[in-house]
Amino acid sequence: MTPNEVRLIRTRLVVLAAVLVTLWSYTAYLTSQDAIDLLRVRALADTLGQPIDRLILSLQAERRASAETIAGATATPLGGAREVTDRAAAELRRFTAGRDVRLLSAGEVRDRADELVRRLDGLSTIRSQLDAGKLDQTEAVDGYDQIVDVAFRVYGPEWGVYESTLAADSRAVIALARARELLAREDTLVSAALTAQRLGVDDRRRLTELVDNQRFARTEAAAGLPADGPVAHQRIANGPEFAELIALEDRLVRADAANALAGTTTASWRAAADAALNALQTLVTSTARSSVERATPGAAVIVARTGAVVGLGLIVVLVLLLSWASTVRRLTDELTRPVVDAPVPPPVPPPLPPPDVVATPDGPDRELFLRITRRNQVLLRDQLNLLDGMQRRERSAEESGELFQLDHLTTRVRRNVEKLIVLAGARPARRWRRAVPLLDVARGAVAEVPDYHRVLIAPHWPWSLAGPAVTDVVHLLAELVENALAFAPADTTVRVSGEHRPQGCAVLVVDDGPGLTDAALADANHLLGSPPADPPTGPTGLYTVAVLADRCGAHVSLRPSRRGGTAAVVLLPAHLVSVTDTGRGPSTAPPTTPYPPAHHGTGRPDPSGDGALPTRVRQAGPTGPEHGRAGLDTVEMPAARAARRHP
Predict the structure, then answer these.
(1) Model confidence at 429: pLDDT above 80
(2) Residue 335 covered by a domain
(3) H helices then E strands: how many in the chain?
């Protein structure tokens, strides 16, 4: 065997060894990620989750006592509530100061916990101003609300990167805790009003919104609870724990404005509210405990699998590497004399490829259409992958879920195609001749975005939209919703609502993102008001919105929202909308039957033969805002359940 042959064999074995080590390393990394994620979730629950739960409960109690003190109560447990809050805050500070090796991959969670500690440091300022009489009730309550919102934001996606039953259960439990926070805010408002014996117009409007929101959020969260959670929630919702509370809520909301508190006493409200709050907290605690108990066997399987892959895999790799090294050494020893290598001729350079005969356009138009086409290719690839998976399985439940995903991808592809037609200066073929309810238009827009489960749509829209403007308004709202989702944290929601305006009505798309600078906001509004003749070279979302608004006669503007994000206001003139409903009072009980998910070919067909709007709907929520307004302050309402995937 010649030295050249030995070198060739040695090179091939080295390449094979490198490939083998790479494959083992990648497999070990993927497998260990499951175990690391499980350890992180358990560590976060033990060291951070429980202190935050206690902190939120203590802040809720202190917020109510502070509101009652401002309202004129002579004896409130404010001092004791503050001591409990300080003890809970001390636990949280110990977490941020410590360094648990199990949380090395949870840096973003620690950053959000640090932000919560900084907010807690400012709590002393709120207290001192309250004691000095420098804060009114609204300012004081808002200060506590902001701290509680930051506490809930600590629960982020890092608590369940490993998509398991435990991660899905944790999201449902957190959603139910958020619903309980809405009830606690309602309790604070009513308790202060009863203390002052006054329920003003603004307080009554705020109470109506809180009642609707907490009923909707509680029903939505309960639907995602594991095991017997939905049944347990239904039992307490229909039982004595909530019967008296619902009756008092309806009485307060429906009473005359001049005598709204008639028949409601502090003692009756305190008994009803405490019973409901305690029942919800018991359900949250018991559900979390049972989820951990059910996940314990699965955790043992994950740890065993990780040990097998990492340990046994490493042994196999080492054995193969040692055997290959022995083979190379034996071949080298067989060489008894040197062999002169033959000269190697210089390599012949490969022929140059023929010039590209396909002419491609240059400039911003080429980049725009190429970017949109690539998005379509990605969506179609995902669609084909789903079809391939459906052909390999025969489980009807999974096929139904994947059919829904496939339909959603198809809807998004259609939106991109129609967007391409719009930017080319033409009109899509899909049109409506008759008026369509504006609520269906909003749902159709949400159905065309990827993260539709993070969007909350107000439940009551007393308007209809003229048929010729439906396609343009659907795509316009879809661009604004997708932009809001992209610039808002993944653990927040985007709210879509409608408001009556003298010149028509306005649709509001509000996010909780970081917001825009004054300069960026001015540039965006300038683009929306005066779109250039040629598409921009950067992102095209706002440009598309401007083109669609100009074509259908709408007016779009951006402004800062009350909670720090951005609000997009779409003004629809009177000739495009008509009032179709006079509004209703608040619902006495939230419905529990979800809207069925509709694919792109279903919905509410027009008898004239028009197409149907796609919808991606969570659940029917309680209706009943005041006439002419569909917007409700959702106060960090939980996002809908994501589709569960098991490893």
Answers:
(1) no
(2) no
(3) 18, 8
Q: What residues form DSSP beta bridges with 509? A: 496, 568
Residue 127 phi/psi, 5° resolution? -65, -45
For residue 78, give both structure tokens.
Answer: 């404010």
Rounded distance, CA 340 to CA 3, Å?
Answer: 9
**Same-domain check for residues 409 and 278:** no
| Assigned domain for 284 exists | yes
How far is residue 330's CA from residue 408's CA, in Å, rounded to a whole number? Answer: 61
Instruction: Please provide the DSSP assignment of 275-311 as one string.
Output: HHHHHHHHHHHHHHHHHHHHHHHHHHHHHHHHHIIII
Residues 448 and 491 in one domain: yes
Look at the chain and report how many structural domains it folds into: 3
For residue 357, tell me if it sits in a domain. Answer: no
Residues 406 and 463 in one domain: no
pTM value is 0.44
Same domain for 170 and 61, yes or no, is yes
Residue 340 burial (CB count, 10 A): 7
- Could you tell me if 196 and 84 lie in one domain? yes
- Residues 89, 190, single domain; the answer is yes
For residue 471, give both structure tokens.
Answer: 């396609």
Determine phi and psi for 432, rounding to 5 degrees.
-120, 140
- Please tell me the number of Cα atoms within 13 Å of 503 on its side-chain side: 8
Taking the C-alpha atoms of residue 235 and residue 430, their distance in angstroms, rounded to an integer, is 47
CA angle 222, 224, 230 (to 5 degrees): 45
Interval 170-188 mean pLDDT: 89
Computed on alpha carbons and rounded to an integer, the radius of gyration of the chain in Å comes to 30
**286 and 413 housed in the same domain:** no
The whole domain housing 416 covers 364-420
Residue 346 inside a domain? The answer is no
Q: How much is the pLDDT for 201?
A: 85
Give the whole-angstrom CA distance, residue 170 versus residue 224.
10
pLDDT of residue 146: 93
Residue with tokens 């951070």: 48
* CB 569 within 8 Å of CB 575: no
pLDDT digit string, tens, across residues 352-393: 443 333 343 455 665 666 566 557 656 756 765 775 666 566
For the chain, how are helix, strand and coil distributed in percent, rounded to 5?
Answer: 60, 5, 30
Answer whether residue 230 shows pLDDT above 70: yes
